[in-house]
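Exercise 7. Predict the joint structure of the components listed below.
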Amino acid sequence: MGALTAAAGVSQPAVSKHLGVLKQAGLVRDRHEGRLTHYSAQPGALTPLADWTVEMASFWEKRFDQLEDLLKRMDQ
Amino acid sequence: MSMAASETRSVVVERQFPFPPEKIWRALTQRHLMEEWLMKSDFKPVVGHRFNLKRTPKPDVNIVIDCEVLEIEPNKTLSYSWDFAHDDPAFNLKSVVTFTLTRTSAGTHLRMEQSGFRPDQRQAFGGAMGGWRQFFDNLENFLARTD
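Solution:
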């Protein structure tokens, strides 16, 4: 943990706290090796936050269905 | 490690319609027709015109989308901004919707692209991400050196 602190340029308690929060959020995972703990990032975990596109894709498919119905009903 | 997914994301929906572009254009730009398939609005096919799209999916749920006409090329291109202010700002959306009509032998190819980003994306990928990225870079460098 001391070495991590030096590398990250943040105090040890801060590093510990950050890693704890990240681990809880599923953004890092840890692997213990003797007295050492290896942390690795899980980048995929952040993508659900950003994905308004999934909802909107289904919204637009439905709109296109309704557009098609309307076009059939329209005279010219 | 790349957490820097682009800040803008895009939805594209495309479909072939057996109708001429002129007919589709009317459905896209006349508000009484728009209401039938999209939403109620005070749309006008004039660049710069600000309007709202509204729907009430449930009695106490009012959805209002703020829009501004950006581009009009009759029977070819229609583009307007689409900004949604959610009760929870984390779900706010700032985007641009663009319809592209292409005449084909079978009728019209209609393409809708909505591209934009959310404020929380800006925070997650901009400010906070800058800090985290630096932290992870430092961490990665350290781990690479000591392996």
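Discussion. Chain B touches chain A through 38 residues (CB under 8 Å).
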